[in-house]
Each structure stands twice: as structure tokens, then as C-alpha cells.
Design a protein that fits this description.
single chain, alpha/beta, 15 helices, globular, disordered N terminus
């Protein structure tokens, strides 16, 4: 018997792998024929992050390829600096966001204005905004929101379990420190006149977590204040802080360490005598992102050392 020509053998091969054959194989495997023919992965959501903390979480989940834009507070990791920027989180525009064709926008309730968020929802964009209340629960909600938005729920749960363990360890370490707590003042001086932090601020929450007392706040005191207010020499002298806490950006905006210490009133504080200053990156210190356990541990240790 003669060997079939090459072209005939090719036609036979094509008949062998035709649709009936695929249907038979897929039936044995328990898959519909359409599933056997089309196993391409679903399109992953396109994400715009308008919070430095949620941007960090996107990278922590390995979802950075889904990131099509970020706000100007998204400075970590370094790769986030190379992403298209949509402006400051509190002053966003619907046109700029929609031009990136996102499936979801994630951030905190600090993002806005509200009318822009409404315009995004009307355009069919999923908006995930987490309440910013300066608690560990805020971090947990951010991780869960990013997990949902990026379709990486399982990875988000694993990350949260890891972070929860770190958080418990840090709080336990802070609790083991006994004795008088260092009295601290947080100074915000990124631009314009310097301000100090009172109750219901991220800085106050960090002080509490790190085992510090806010020197401007007296438990039940009538002079207590919420939010930020202008720093006055009189208030600093009266507060008599052991240590000053600020951001590295604030030191830079002041013109360096020497210029920072020249702020009126600082020279009459115990902190000035020892040059007791803790300066950390703003996003790291008060951004309430996935590095919060490390930030609390570093603030605790650095404040004890600086105030000793």
C-alpha cells in the first residue's frame, strides 16, 4: 500500500483535531467544548489609586501591572513615581481620571471632590473609598478594598494575615515598655506656617500606638483641640516636649535641620537642649498603609532614644 501524499496526511491530521474530537475530549474532562476551545484568562481590572497607602497595597499584592494611574501622594515604592499622575487626591478631575479608562478607582474618603466621585460612578467606574479613621481597621479595610478592586481577594487575605501578626507583635513590644512616656509634639511644616497636631489626627493616633504622650493634650483638658492649628512659641514653651516629631519633607521644606530648629519657641523646650528630633517620611509615618507596623516600631524606638 502506497504512503499517502504529504498534503493528504495534513488533511487527515486536521480532521483528527476537528471540533467533534475536541468535543469528545472535553466531555471526558468534564468541560464544555467552548471552555476547551477558549481558556484565555479574563481581563484584569484597570486600577487608578488615589491614595499613597492603597498604591502601596497594589504593589504588595503584585497587581502593579493593573495600575494605570496614581495620585501625587503615591510615592512608594519608587516604581509608583513612574505611573501617570491624576493630581492631588483632594483635587481630582473626572476628565483626567476617565481618560485612563479605569475599571475601578480606589482610595480613602479624603479623596475628592465628592462631585467627581459621583461622576465616576455615573460613568460606570467602580469607586472604592475607605474611611480614614486612623485605626488598624483602616489598614485592614484598605487591603480588603484593593483585593476586591484588583480581583485578588485571596492574596489580600494572605497579606492581611501577615500584617495582623506584625501588628500584634509591635503593640506587644510597645506595651512592655514601662515608666514615664516621652512627651512629644508633632509639627507639620510642609508649606506655609507650621502647624501642630491635636486630637483626631493621624499623628495623635501614631503617638498613642507608639507609646508617646502628646504634650499639647491633657486628658480631659479644656484647652485640648482637634485637628491641626498654628504653632505658637507660647504653646511650645508651655508644652515642654521631650521630643519633636516631624516629617523628612517638613525638614526639607524648612531648609534643613538647622533652619528647622530656629523656629521660634523651640529653643526653650527640653527637646531643643538634646536636639531630640524624629523625622520620618510622611507617607510612612502618617499614611496608614501596609508599613504601619514598622512605622510604629521605629517611632517608638527613635523617640525613646532621642528623648533619653
Amino acid at each position: 500500500m502506497k504512503t499517502p501524499p504529504l498534503q493528504l496526511r495534513r488533511r487527515d491530521a486536521l480532521r483528527y483535531f476537528s471540533l467533534p474530537a475536541v468535543t469528545a475530549v472535553s466531555s471526558v474532562c468534564g468541560l464544555p467544548a467552548t471552555a476547551a476551545l477558549a481558556q484565555a484568562p479574563a481581563k484584569m481590572p484597570r486600577i487608578v489609586s488615589v491614595s499613597g497607602a492603597t498604591t502601596e497595597i497594589v504593589y504588595a499584592l503584585g497587581a502593579e501591572k493593573q495600575l494605570v494611574g496614581t495620585d501625587t501622594t503615591s510615592l512608594f515604592p519608587a516604581a509608583a513615581l513612574q505611573t501617570p499622575k491624576v493630581g492631588y487626591m483632594r483635587a481630582l478631575s473626572a476628565e483626567g481620571l476617565l481618560s485612563l479608562k479605569p475599571d475601578a478607582v480606589i482610595g480613602t474618603t479624603e479623596a475628592g471632590p465628592g462631585v467627581v466621585m459621583d461622576q465616576l460612578r455615573t460613568a460606570g467606574v467602580k469607586v472604592e473609598l475607605v474611611e480614614a479613621d486612623h485605626t488598624w481597621g483602616e489598614v485592614q479595610r484598605k487591603v480588603a478594598a484593593v483585593g476586591r478592586a484588583t480581583s485578588r481577594v485571596a492574596q489580600a487575605a494572605a497579606l492581611q494575615a501577615k500584617l495582623d501578626a506584625q501588628w500584634a507583635e509591635v503593640l506587644a513590644a510597645v506595651a512592655r515598655k514601662t515608666g514615664r512616656k516621652p512627651r512629644a509634639v508633632f509639627i507639620l511644616t510642609h508649606s506655609g506656617s507650621p502647624q501642630v497636631a491635636g486630637e483626631k489626627t493621624a499623628a495623635q493616633a501614631m503617638f498613642t500606638f507608639a507609646g508617646l504622650d502628646n504634650a499639647l493634650i491633657t486628658p480631659g483638658g479644656s484647652s485640648n483641640f482637634a485637628g491641626y492649628r498654628a504653632m505658637t512659641p507660647e504653646a511650645l514653651v508651655t508644652a515642654a516636649p521631650d521630643v519633636i516629631v516631624t516629617t523628612t519633607q517638613g525638614v526639607e521644606a524648612s531648609g534643613g535641620l538647622e533652619k528647622f530648629w530656629q523656629r521660634p519657641g523651640l529653643e526653650l523646650t527640653p527637646a531643643y537642649k538634646r536636639r531630640a528630633l524624629v523625622a520620618l517620611d510622611a507617607l510612612y509615618l502618617i499614611g496608614f498603609g501596609p508599613r504601619l507596623p514598622q512605622a510604629v516600631a521605629e517611632l517608638h524606638q527613635a523617640s525613646l532614644k532621642a528623648g533619653a
